[in-house]
Amino acid sequence: MANILITGGAGFIGQNLVHTWRKTRPDDRLTVIDAMTYAANITSLEPLIESRQINLVKGSITDGALLRDLFDQHQFTRVAHLAAESHVDRSIEDPEAFLTTNVLGTFALLKASLDFWRANKLLEQSRFLHVSTDEVYGSLSAHEPAFCETTPYRPNSPYAASKAASDHLVRSFEVTYGLPALITNCSNNYGPYQHPEKLIPLMIIHALEGKALPIYGDGSNIRDWLHVSDHCEALIAVIERGHVGETYNVGGGNEQNNRNVVGLICETIDRAFAKDSKLKDRFPACPAADDRSCRSLITFVTDRPGHDHRYAINATKLANELGKRCSVDFAAGLEQTVRWYIENEAWWRAIISGSYRTWIEKNYGNRSAV
Ligand code: NAD
Ligand code: TYD
User: Fold this and answer.
1) How much is the pLDDT for 358?
2) Which residues lie closer than 8 Å to 143 by C-beta, 6 or more apart?
3) Annotated catalytic, 276?
4) Looking at the domain covering 3-195+225-256+310-329, what would its CATH class be?
5) C-alpha separations of 9 from 14, 79, 303 in Å
6) Which of 216, 259, 261 to mutate to test the pocket of ligand 2 (most atoms within 8 A of CB)?
């Protein structure tokens, strides 16, 4: 039995991690700290909170006094750090929150962990897992080898720069103070509970609602799609069995350009409507409701500034050292994800009303079709 602190546990990957952890390690005590920003959602956690299977604390990781109290109260010996501002487009509009949470918040968490583990002589048995991104490595051209753990850092967006800074801080705490830290750098995740502003949910929801599918630039940008269930299993493997001080890259082995991803989403929705006529009544604005392809909604819009061309992960170290290989096939994972968004309409409808609308107007209002 261990006492675990999961930061950002009300976000996309955090919620999935909480559920995976709860199912596979029922004896561990889980505490989630989350500032409940626009990206948080606790609907899926509510049954666990009510049945006291997890403890949810609303608060910021920048609050050192709160972190100290939580460590004293719950005696954590494992920290899985996922809390972050995570959307590249928002970091371009307004980078400040990214520096505050991703850099200063990570620093406050490192300090609280180190102080508590040192004072209680728990350094040896404790683990601090910092969840980071492949975006710290910058952008690859078409023929360059995939990112590995020794690829130099070349972050291009304010988001990537803030995550790179946090990785460096974590490393410095391990080397300088002996904090038992590990870092993972993963590729783009997809799956249930992802916020509707990210590529895959945005395209699914827009297609269902008959809205334009806005592909930035010419859609040739490539991402290496990782199913969130594979990612969560990898995170648990790293925190439990990884070597302290090491970095592990986690990737899906599924490189796809954005045109292909959006095309696959359209085909998956077209097929779902052809199989289930009830969907036509539920989503009458979707082109598939009139037996037209959702592809008719694809629109190419002004590119993101500094848009990284390609990310790809070499995950050999994770497989060789920890025996974890990502196994979800992209077409199957995407089909399951499309089904999840169709079945969980109430979940995303609650999010896309309200402040989400303001973001959509801000991000897409000035992007002309190209
Ligand atoms: P998310 O934006 O869905 O969730 C982040 C969560 O952190 C939210 O619940 C938010 O409320 C919380 N949070 C933000 N600021 C906070 C603060 N100051 N204190 C406490 N909580 C705060 O992000 P995600 O997609 O779940 O990503 C989780 C982690 O994985 C992040 O560190 C991100 O950089 C990393 N990552 C994500 C992806 C991806 O594809 N989603 C890829 C690579 C790395
Ligand atoms: P995103 O989900 O924002 O993740 P990241 O930028 O961290 O990789 O975007 C994934 C890719 O999809 C990226 O190349 C940008 C592109 N994209 C679009 O073409 N249109 C959109 O509306 C969004 C949100 C993203």
Assistant:
1) 83
2) none
3) no
4) alpha beta
5) 4, 11, 31
6) 216
Helices 199-208, 345-352: inter-axial angle, 10-degree rounding? 100
* Per-residue pLDDT reduced to its tens digit, 8-43: 999 999 999 999 999 999 999 999 999 999 999 999
Is the CB of 364 within 6 Å of ligand 2? no
180-200 tens-digit pLDDT: 999 999 999 999 999 999 999
Nearest ligand 1 atom to alpha carbon 186: 43
What residue segments make up the domains of the chain, in order of their start? 3-195+225-256+310-329
- Establish whether 159 is a catalytic residue: yes
Give 125: exposed, middle or buried? Use CB within 10 Å, 0-12, 13-18, 19+.
Answer: exposed
The CB density around residue 1, as the number of other CB atoms within 10 Å, is 7
User: What lines the ligand 1 site, CB under 6 Å?
Assistant: 7-8, 10-14, 33-37, 39-40, 60-62, 82-86, 101, 105, 131, 133, 163, 186, 188-189, 195
In whole angstroms, what is the distance from residue 249 CA to residue 259 CA?
25
Q: How far is the CA of 189 from the centre of ligand 2 (A)?
A: 11
Q: What is the pLDDT of residues 134-177, one digit of tens each?
A: 999 999 999 999 999 999 999 999 999 999 999 999 999 999 99
The verdict on whether 134 is a catalytic residue reads: yes
Which pTM value belongs to this model? 0.97
pLDDT of residue 362: 85
